[in-house]
Amino acid sequence: MDLIKYVHEQLTQDKKAIPAFRSGDNVVVNYKIIEGDKERIQSFRGDVIQIKGHGATKTFTVRKISNGVGVERIFPFASPNIVDVTLVKRGKVRRSRLFYLRSLVGKKARIKERKYTGNKENS
Amino acid sequence: MNGLIGKKIGMTSIYDSAGRSVACTVIEAGPCVVTQVKTEDTDGYEALQLGFGEAKTKNTSNPLVGHFKKAGTDPKRKVVEFRNFNILAKELGETIRVDEVFAEGDKVSAVGVSKGKGFQGVVKRHGFGGVGESTHGQHNRLRAPGSIGASSYPSKVIKGMRMAGRDGGRRVKVKNLRVLKVLPEKNLILIKGAIPGHKGALIIIEK
After folding, report:
1. Which pLDDT does position B48 carry in this prediction?
2. Does the distance separating the beta carbons of B9 and A3 come in below 8 Å?
3. Residue A8 DSSP SS3
4. Among all residues of chain B, which has the CA nearest to that of A2?
5. For tag attachment on chain A, is the N or C end more exposed, with fewer CB atoms within 10 Å?
């Protein structure tokens, strides 16, 4: 396992500062899109519904409702195509995998905001 | 054929220049010791015999201990012969490192012993289709092999009929794999895709 970690350290050049977020948080992911030979940046805003894996293969899933259709995107933390991630809102949820949101629509599919919780505020 | 013996470390994924994630296997390849040099004069063909891995002297047979002593090394776990090892004219007892044999972009084959699957049915073991329907009177024969031959002629099951049995745990060679990276400081080589065997298994990489 240590050697796998070594490989990861050797092969990731630019360490981006991705803010610490957890499931239920609302984030904006700016990522590069390559169309032919042109490159542009697209942003994807939604709720984090899953954080999975570890090391080089760690990913997070963002879900949003686009024109009434639920859209989910999986981003690897280590992907060079991610320009940055900004944390918009912290969500108050009671589980780490929010797949129940898939079967909810409209007002039911909202996540309550987690306000500042004093000393217990953990990144 | 050039090659090395290595140990499978595990799998991970790296990103290529276009930012795509590529799954790869990490192998600790070498350093291998030349335990025997075979030449046209002495053996009738050219080959290098390489040794890899640590082995205890008490668990190594005396003839092999002598063989390793001749090469001036400790006993090795695995010894493999590579015919016509052409790029390096190596002497007995010298070590070969991973960056001497492989470079990024090389096409290689990997040989390993696949993971043992135990006693498996024909669907997993031979890729049979199964019955295809779970209803319409299929009872419990969803993954059954079906007919294994005709009746009074030939009155027997022909040899080699594919049936259920022990699966996995055999030597498998995967060809045309691409070397993605070589990290010589830790003797590591990254090969695109999966390679037979469990973590820690001995792998022969041929070029």
Report:
1. 86
2. yes
3. helix
4. B9
5. C
- The tokens 């973590």 sit on which residue? B199
User: Which of B11, B13, B187, B199 should we substitute to test contact with A (largest number of A Cβ atoms within 10 Å)?
Assistant: B13
Write the CB contacts of A120 (distance below 8 Å, at least 6 apart in sequence): none
CA-nearest of B25, B34, B36 to B4 is B34
- Predicted confidence (pLDDT) at residue B173 exceeds the cutoff of 90: yes
Looking at this protein, which amino acid is placed at residue B97?
R
pLDDT tens readout for residues B101-117:
888 888 999 999 999 99
Give the span between the Cα atoms of A41 and B120, in whole angstroms.
50
Q: Which residue of A has its CA nearest to B200?
A: A1
Rounded to whole angstroms, how far apart are CA atoms B108 and B189? 11
Tell me which DSSP letter residue B42 carries. Answer: H
Chain A hits for B13, Cβ within 8 Å: 56-57, 76
Query: What confidence tens digit (pLDDT) does each residue in A11-25 have?
Result: 776 667 788 888 999
Q: Which residue carries 């084959």 as its tokens?
A: B109
* B52/B33 Cα distance (integer angstroms): 7
State residue B156's pLDDT score.
92
Residues in chain B whose Cβ is within 8 Å of chain A: 9-10, 12-15, 18-19, 21, 26, 28, 181, 183, 186, 188, 190
Using the beta-carbon criterion (under 8 Å), do A7 and B18 form an inter-chain contact?
A: no
Cα gap B179→B71, rounded to integer Å? 30
A-chain CB neighbours of B26 within 8 Å are 3-4, 7
Q: Give the E-state strand segments of B39-170 in sequence order.
A: 47-54, 76-83, 95-96, 107-113, 118-120, 165-167
Distance from CA of A48 to the nearest CA of B (A): 21
Measured between alpha carbons, how far is A19 from A28 in angstroms, rounded to an integer? 11
